[in-house]
Structure formats: C-alpha cells, structure tokens
Amino acid sequence: MLPDCGPLRRLPLLFFFDQDARPHHRGATAPSFSTNPRIVPQDRHIQFVSFNANSFHRVSVLELGLRNACFLHPWVRFAISGALRAADTPKPVEGRDGSVCPTAADAPSPRIEIRRFLPDKPINRARRPAPVTADVLNLGDADAVVTATLRLPQGVQLLSTNAEREARLASDDGEVRLTWQVEASAAISGDLQLDISADGRSVAQQTLAMQFLPAVEARELAYIPEPQPAPTDMLVGAHHCPLWESDRPNMWRNVLKHPERTPALGFYSQENPEVADWETKWAAEHGISFFIYCWYRTSQGGAVQTQFGSVIHDALFKSKFADKMRFTIMWENQARGTAGVADERDLFTNLLPYWMENYFQHPSYLKVDNKPVLFIYRPEFLVQDLGSVENVARAFEQLRQTCRDAGFDGLYLLGEYRGMDPKHLTLMKNLGLDYTFAYCWYVHANPTPERAIRTQMDYIRKTQELNILPQVVTVSQAWSGWADEGTIWKIPPPDYERLLRQAKDFTATLPKHQLGSRMLLLDNWNEWGEGHYIAPYREYGFGYLDAVRRVFSTAPHVHEDLIPEDIGMGPYDTAVREYFERERQHRRLMTRQVVRPGAPDSLAAWWTFDEESDSPVVLDVSGHRLGGAMQKAQRAEGFEGSALVCSGGCVVVPNAPQLSDLKTLTIECRVKTESAGQHNKWMLNRVFGGSEASGFRLGLLDGKPCFHVPQTAWSHHLTASDVLPVGRWVHLAATFDGNTMRLYMDGVECGAMDRPGEVRPNGCHLVIGNYEIDHPAHFTGLLDDVRLYDRALTPNEIRAHLAGLKGSRAK
Question: Angle at which helices 389-405 and 422-431 pack, to 10 degrees?
C-alpha cells in the first residue's frame, strides 16, 4: 500500500501493469515507461502518484510490500490510485510506514535555458531605442509555460516588448525569442536582469551589462567625417590583429562567449575600406599615429603568398583616409617552414622586394629618421632559416644597405621578446636587432588591475636595468587567451590611464637618441578573440581611447566620438551575423533529443551519421543532445548506413558541460582509409593550443592509432604497437579508467600507458573528423559509428561490440 497521504480526490481512470510492467491507459496508445518488470505480476492493480503535470519524473510505488519505480508520461496530470485520485495535500506528508508522499512543491523545475540575452546593436546611445533580444529554450521532456520579467536599472525605461504574456514552450527544444525596446535618458552603465519563471518559480536568470554612450544627434551624412588628429609629443602605435575577414567567421567564436567584447563595428569584415576609415578616425582622433599590422607569409622559397593581408591591401590602401594614418608590419614568422625564409636567396630575391614595393615605399609606411620600421615576431627562428647567428646579422646589415640604396637612411629592426632572460636578449643583440619590444606582457595568476600594472612596469624597468638591448616600451590592457586558458585579467580604463602615465614617464628617462624615448606601443587595438583590445567596444565604449588621448595628446579632453549609427552608416557585420544565425538554427536541430533503441546507459554521446545526406547537422542518438554541425563535410556509404567523409571537413560539437564531466571514458569507432602512414592526423579532438593539458583525442601518429589524454601540456600520447590497416573497416577503441590508457584494434589490445588522475576538463568544443575547423591535421578516410562512453569499457565489452554484425548499432 502507498503511505496514507490524507484525503485524495477520485478520478474515473484506471491504470494497470501488464506483463512487461508498463502502465496502460485503457483505450489509448501506451506511452513509453521505464519500470522494473521483475516486481509487479501481470494485471496486478497498483497505486501510484503523479506530482508534476509538466515533466517525466520518478515515483515510488508500493504493492504487496514491494517497491517499484516508473516514469509517468507528461499527459498523466494527476495523482492516482485504485480508480485514480488527485492529490490535494500542499506539502509532503509522512505515511504510517515512514515513507513520504510527494506533492507539487517537490516537483523538479522545468529545464529552461536562456541561450542568448544580448542587445541587438554592437553599442548603444542614450535617448535612442536600444533593442534587446533573448532566446529562451525548453530542454525538458514536457511542455512548459513560462513568464519573462525584465528588470531595468534606474534611468532606463521600457518602450515596448513582445513578452507581456505567458509563452508556451514545447518539449524537446521548444524555443521563443523575446524582444524588448529600452531607452536610457542619459549616458549610463547598468545591468538588465532577466528572470524566467514557470509555475510561480524562477527557473532561469541572466544579467546583461549595458553601457549607453552620451546622446548625440543622429544625422545622415554621405560619408565618415574626415579625422581630426589629436596632436601628441611622441609616436604612439597600436598592434593590430588582422584576423577578421568575412569568410572566417569562426575567428569571432570566442567573442560569442564574451559578448561584452563586441566591437563598435560589430563582427566586421576587415577588408571593407570603410572599416579601415573608421579605425583611422578613431585612432587618429585619440592620439594614435600608426598601426603595426601582423603580417603572415604562407609559403617559403618562392613568390610571396600571404594570408590576412586584406586589412592592408583591400582596406587600408583603398580607404579614403589612408594618408591620415601611418602603418608598419610585424613579420609573424613563427610557423616554421612556411612563414619564414627558405634561405638568404629567398629573403633577398622574394621577401625584401615584396616589402619594398608594397610597404616600405608606400607614402603611409612608418619611417623614423628616414628609416622604415620593421617588427619581427620570432627573430631567433631566423638562425635556423639562415644557418647561424652570424648569417642573420650579416643579412640584417644587408637589409639596411638595400634600404639605403633605395633612398632611405637605413632600416630600424625590432625583435619581439617578453621575457627577462639575459641570454635571450644577448642573442637578439648578436643577431643585429636595434631594439626589443613586447607584443604583450604575461602577468600570471589572474592578477588584479593593480598587480597587472605593477608587474608590467617591473618588466619594463628590469629590461632597462639589464642594459643589453634598448627597448621600445609596450603596455598591455588585458589577456584571456583564445580558449580562456591560464591567466585571465583586464585593466579597466581609469587604471589603464594610470599605467599609460607611468609608462610615458618612464620613456622620458630613456636616452634621447633612442627610439624608445620617442615611441610607445599599445597592446592591442583589436585582439578580440585573445582578450586584449582598446578599440571602441560594447563594455567600455571609447574608455580606453579616451585614456590614450588624455595621457598623450594636448587636444581638449572634451570631444565627440561618432559611431556608424550616428551618421546613418553600417552595418559592417552582415555576413558574419548571417553565418551565426544559420548556426543558431542548426543548433536547434542538432540538440534535438534522439534516442536510438538499445542505447547503453553509459553512453555520453553516439554519432552514426545516418541523417539525410544533405543534413547540415549530425545528431547524438544517445539522447544527450550532443549533436554537431557539419563543416565543409560530406557523408558516404559507411560500415552501416552512412559514414563521415574525412578529407578536411569535420563535425563540430559545441562545448557542453557533459563533455567536461567525463572523468573516465571510452572512444569507440569504425574507420577505413586507403592512405597509409598518416602522421599527426586526428579523428576526434578536444585538445587545443591554450588548453593543451586537458581534454582527449584520437588519431594517427606514424600511421599508428594514437590516444591522447594529457595531464600536462601535450603529455601522455599512447601510440599503438601496430599500424592501422588500410583498405578495410577497422574497429578502434580507446579507454581510460582514471589510471591506465589503453588502445584496441579489432578487439585486440595494442597499447597501454599509466596515467593516474581524471580527465582534465576544458571549455572547448569537440571536433570529429579533424583536429580543428579547416585544419590540415585531419584524418583521411571514412569514420562511422563514433561512440563516447562515460566509463572505460572492459576488453570483453569491446570484443562483443566488434563481433556485432551490421544492423546491430543498438547493441
């Protein structure tokens, strides 16, 4: 008998347990239930209680002294016993046997998620409507009726909304987009607080920090007003990161995680000359006189080929205000074998002529003392490229002489280094560099703004005290890394202004003939993904640029900062926003809850690639919603059904808590390749630069399967003893039980490695079929039936899975 829970209301319905212990509503199709068939005999009348009208839930059932559990279907919306009874009791009541009768108050909350709560505009002004949007998603197994409440800071009023009424969200990814129009009466920073409630209880909350810039009269202009440069008594330059091309939307992905970083231009396309003109205007009007563009070569030994050069060639060179801003380049030569030089001939036959023609002789290129200024990111790598330190020094002197022959007075060469090792600084001096500089400063252990300032000034002073190589001072605003790894910090604008003043005062102590007494570098104009930037953006508006103007310029502090909306221009981010909107639609598809019959309980995810051939998503058929988006990938006939064609494309599974909850695991899949000897090629990956001491991956090294569960940076690569066979399907399994990593091919163990400790979590996505999106380190072949378990399978289980014939995916 059930505990006596007080008076219950009788309803004219009956439930029975049949032979497989599933309750059936007479005259209706039976819903799906999970019960224990060993407990209840056939047609035994049983009493039980449903205490939540809107979700599956587990209920204790007593019959003849035996306890059973079942899941009630969402359409069961009443407490029942005998002929069905609805519970009236408002709180749990203890029965005579000590058990408790559940009530509605005990019901689990609906699984509601606020997936997006953001302003529609990159940046907002006072006294103008500011649209705000929230996407609210139902992740539960039953319909939910929700109410939205938006709380506004003082000085901000609500103009309109579509959220006045309740919204019904269907089960399994029902979604509603809520919109508001708000307006601030004056410049203000404050928090908007969104609360989603269901059944009178708060089920999801999110806070949105918004800044409203001072009010400016909106007007329509034919073009951006010409910059009015703010005069300075020294050269102030800013490092410029040119990664933001329209066909590379994934570069913005880390900004999606940090929407407060959204630039004033939105997720812009840097190749647009108007974008360059806005950047020139904002920089020049705040005392910044030149940009240092990162410059990337993509092959050595032949004619110069580059990437990300659109920021110079398509934007700056074609912009209206190109003569209002100087520029220089930082040679990003860190990718060995592609980004440097093959030899001295390559340097003087290919690279230097390209620089001379395109950059050094351009009227806007930065020249000091009639010398072009060239920054080099990894000057020490040139020792390997050219053969010796002496060869590099001789080549540098020849570069200077070539510049003299072209009518200049030489060439300033600056090498990047952000450390304090005297040996490295001595090497840089011996290479023939004129100055050292830092692209950014590393400050450990998530410092406070005060410690970040103090540490940078300590580095700067220490470099000078070593007195090995003169420096040009750099000051850094923040750091997070592309994957929010390691140390994370930010110096707000008022503190940043203090840092600038200290750095400026320091440069005044340097010898007047040194470049460092006349030049200071700012890190960084626009490293949006890596987390350091001073260009106008959502969180602080023009705060950092105003600090630069106050410190370095003699121009009046009070001035007007325009944004595109003020003059009827823009937007500049249409292509990227459309891409992410399509991705949002795909996410709704790929997070559908799909359960393939017979899916084992320990499965964390299961990808079979058996969707329609043109489907943009791959579903997780384990029921855990870890589906992924196809990225330039295709399907083909597989081991069973379809397989993923691995030829450079991939499937990207967004980061989810379930991926980092894996402390032990098994990766299981079927692979087929015709390409022997694949090296450093990956089938499944969650280990990335910046997070190289966490995650897991499976791939090939020297043609052999490789399983990687790092404990420190890039540690613990387990490589199989045998190569992967070609020309046939092979069953691969990789297990980790918290102590030992193991590899299996076709059910036979082929490698083991000690590795004590749990899998280390990270915040990265999971890539199937490649190392990363558009990456050359991709497996070549077919990949099918990829399974991820939350435990280490036993050898017997792996052999049993191998023995499964086609048609047994569910086993």
Answer: 50
